[in-house]
């Protein structure tokens, strides 16, 4: 990752250099893994809780080569906190809706091949069901392989406010709230964590589990995810 100029002292980004560089390094890592190719994906960290403010990637940037200028500070409504900043991610509201949850410090959106394919293959079932894998224990709060995780799938849309409201309803659902992450059909994955390290771990773990699911289907020749 190449060094780029620090934001000027008058910029709303001033003082956030460490978080910016951590997100830049995250983008480079996700790009290397093939999870954030080209301009796909977006990433955010919470920089203020009350009022809620996020540091988020600007829209349309190559995520493998983010510069220190490729970031925006937004409020809970997804609006830039001051004029003159670049346009924030087109999916900003999908970050703010998750970041509103207490305990969330970072949100990562990726576009891996396996998440994209499985989000379509399992769309009619509503979720990818993942059960019995030791690697499930890499997800916050899971302590045994004897666990079933449902990675829910939302239909893709360009109407991000409407999708954000659907996600909000599922995040706050009292019976079975979304945990760890979700998929958007033929699009990608959202995951989050208490901080950037945990969100990165969740990306790795969920991607591993999705790849296991997909490769198992390919080897066994059928859509029998629970068998
Ligand atoms: C070729 S990626 C299409 C847009 C998208 O899904 C994405 O994740 C990146 O959008 P952004 O506005 O955050 O650059
Ligand atoms: Zn996307």
From TrEMBL:
<comment type="function">
    <text>Catalyzes the dehydration of methylthioribulose-1-phosphate (MTRu-1-P) into 2,3-diketo-5-methylthiopentyl-1-phosphate (DK-MTP-1-P).</text>
</comment>
<keyword id="KW-0456">Lyase</keyword>
<dbReference type="GO" id="GO:0019509">
    <property type="term" value="P:L-methionine salvage from methylthioadenosine"/>
</dbReference>
<dbReference type="GO" id="GO:0046570">
    <property type="term" value="F:methylthioribulose 1-phosphate dehydratase activity"/>
</dbReference>
<dbReference type="InterPro" id="IPR017714">
    <property type="entry name" value="MethylthioRu-1-P_deHdtase_MtnB"/>
</dbReference>
<dbReference type="InterPro" id="IPR036409">
    <property type="entry name" value="Aldolase_II/adducin_N_sf"/>
</dbReference>
<protein>
    <recommendedName>
        <fullName>Methylthioribulose-1-phosphate dehydratase</fullName>
        <ecNumber>4.2.1.109</ecNumber>
    </recommendedName>
</protein>
<keyword id="KW-0862">Zinc</keyword>
<keyword id="KW-0486">Methionine biosynthesis</keyword>
<comment type="similarity">
    <text>Belongs to the aldolase class II family. MtnB subfamily.</text>
</comment>
<dbReference type="GO" id="GO:0008270">
    <property type="term" value="F:zinc ion binding"/>
</dbReference>
<dbReference type="InterPro" id="IPR001303">
    <property type="entry name" value="Aldolase_II/adducin_N"/>
</dbReference>
<dbReference type="GO" id="GO:0005737">
    <property type="term" value="C:cytoplasm"/>
</dbReference>
<dbReference type="Pfam" id="PF00596">
    <property type="entry name" value="Aldolase_II"/>
</dbReference>
<feature type="binding site">
    <location>
        <position position="111"/>
    </location>
    <ligand>
        <name>Zn(2+)</name>
    </ligand>
</feature>
<feature type="binding site">
    <location>
        <position position="109"/>
    </location>
    <ligand>
        <name>Zn(2+)</name>
    </ligand>
</feature>
<comment type="pathway">
    <text>Amino-acid biosynthesis; L-methionine biosynthesis via salvage pathway; L-methionine from S-methyl-5-thio-alpha-D-ribose 1-phosphate: step 2/6.</text>
</comment>
<keyword id="KW-0479">Metal-binding</keyword>
<keyword id="KW-0028">Amino-acid biosynthesis</keyword>
<feature type="domain" description="Class II aldolase/adducin N-terminal">
    <location>
        <begin position="21"/>
        <end position="214"/>
    </location>
</feature>
